[in-house]
Amino acid sequence: MKRILLIALVVLAAASCKKITPETRIAEINRFFQGKEDVHTPKLQQYQGKKQLDYLNLILDGELDAATIWVVEADGQSSMLAEFPGSDKKGDLTMISASLDDPQACSAVLEAMEALKQLKIQHKNTIRTLFYAPAPDSTGQNGLAAVNDELRSFEELILFDIELTTGSETVPTKTFVIEEKPDFARQLIEIIQPYMAPLGDYQFEQGIYPNPSWPLKTSIYRYNVDPGDFQKDVAAVTSFAYLLN
To answer: What phi and psi values does residue 168 have, to the nearest 5 degrees?
Structure first.
């Protein structure tokens, strides 16, 4: 499947002369976020627990028109997922995630999906957004463990997850950390980086793969959103998600 992703990216570049080019789409995404107000972070900071989930449900269902929204419970902690079907009914499942105790990262997920919707950018793969419980469960892990168990129980394979944080002490800003097999990560970076260059000086680094300390067992692409440069960083995350999907 990963090889197919690389081939698709190459084909996208080769066919761009006949369609809206990736460069044009990324420029549209960049313009969309220029001067845009972050309306979700204050709300997500204000609400806690069920009210926070209610707000997310309101935005995902009402404004973003998610096809399905559901909650995964574990030891009294709730994580919320929403699904946005891709244009290819047989396409892969991908994910964009953030912890519920990181309101601005959760806002970045919502903003990225809003940009794809408002700009009418079709994504081939089905995208799931995930807002997971940060509190430890009885196994000492957070809501990601319960979500991973659910995915495994339904034998669902997530191609990759774009994991967003703010204020991370382990992921540098302006850097996408690719937790992938080294050969694939190197090829992916070579293809993606030229498209991302017009957005700014964004870096790409190889991360730990597989990551034994991360409960969600798939390839993880981490990004630490800079609160002081929020809209520019969300434009980069959205462009990254667009290219991969």
So the answer is: -70, 140
- Residue 162 CA to residue 95 CA, distance in Å, equals 6
Report pLDDT for 4. 61
Instruction: State the Cα–Cα distance between residues 135 and 124, nearest whole angstrom.
Output: 33
Length of the chain: 245
| β-strand pairing of 126-132 with 93-99 | parallel
* pTM for the full predicted model: 0.92
Listed residue (34, 30, 1, 35) closest to 195, CA to CA:
30
Tens of pLDDT, residue by residue over 16-65, are: 545 789 999 999 999 999 999 999 999 999 998 999 999 999 999 999 99
d(CA 99, CA 108): 11
